[in-house]
Amino acid sequence: FEIDSRNRTKQFSQEFRYATDLDGSINFTTGALAWQETRDLEDRGYIAICASLLDPECIAGGWQALVRAINPQYGDDGFVDAKTLHGSLYELVEWQALDALTLSAEARYVNERFEVELADTLCLLAVSTLPCQSADRQNNSGTVRSQYITPKFGLEYVLADNLLLYASAAEGRKPAGIDTLAGSGTSTIAEIQYDS
């Protein structure tokens, strides 16, 4: 057998924010966030089982030639290729109702797309008497998209110069996706996809 796994991840993010500082009791914060992540996992490892302990080519170490003959996917780039594109907009309103009391309300709009392509993990097991079934990569790729708005509310009360009481309530939500850990040659995208 051989273990050869390489994982490359690239990320980029950018945020813009504008906050007011008005003389009145109400102020606003407006912002936008965008980020992108790409992941490429190459797994060139294999397990080869000799058909016979007396097979000189197998025993002598001709593993890679044997595996390539059985498993045409051996050495192919991309065991898991995943890409996430995220964009969100948010608006925060703060109201100083009293000198010691500030109320806030925020809404965030999220638009996210997740794309993935999975190779056939069953082809990581190469048996010298059984040909590996090549994965239909077109059938093992998919895209999910999430669009939603999450609210958040906050309260701050100054009890003393060095004592602040605060509370907040928000809706947490995870974008839809595809479980790349559970993916295998026997799993379809529909079976390992989850909703937001």
In summary, what is this structure?
The protein is mainly beta.
Structure description:
The chain is mainly beta and 196 residues long. The chain is 8% helix and 54% strand. The chain contains three helices and ten strands; from the N terminus they run βββααββββββαβ. It has helices at 56-59, 63-70, 189-192, and strands at residues 5-19, 26-43, 47-49, 80-95, 101-118, 125-127, 141-160, 163-170, 177-178, 193-194. The chain has a six-stranded antiparallel beta sheet with strand order 1-2-4-5-7-8, with no helix packed on it. The longest helix has 8 residues, at 63-70. The two termini are 39 Å apart. The relative contact order is 0.17. Mean pLDDT is 78; it is low at 121-138.
List the helices and strands and how they pair.
Elements: E1 5-19, E2 26-43, E3 47-49, H1 56-59, H2 63-70, E4 80-95, E5 101-118, E6 125-127, E7 141-160, E8 163-170, E9 177-178, H3 189-192, E10 193-194
Parallel strand pairs: 3-6
Antiparallel strand pairs: 1-2, 2-4, 4-5, 5-7, 7-8, 9-10
Defining key terms:
two-stranded parallel sheet; 196 residues
Straight-line N-to-C gap = 39 Å
Beta-strand share of residues? over 45%
Please state the CA-atom Rg, rounded to the nearest Å.
26 Å
Described by the principal axes of the CA atoms, the overall outline is: elongated
Major β-sheet annotation: 6 strands, antiparallel
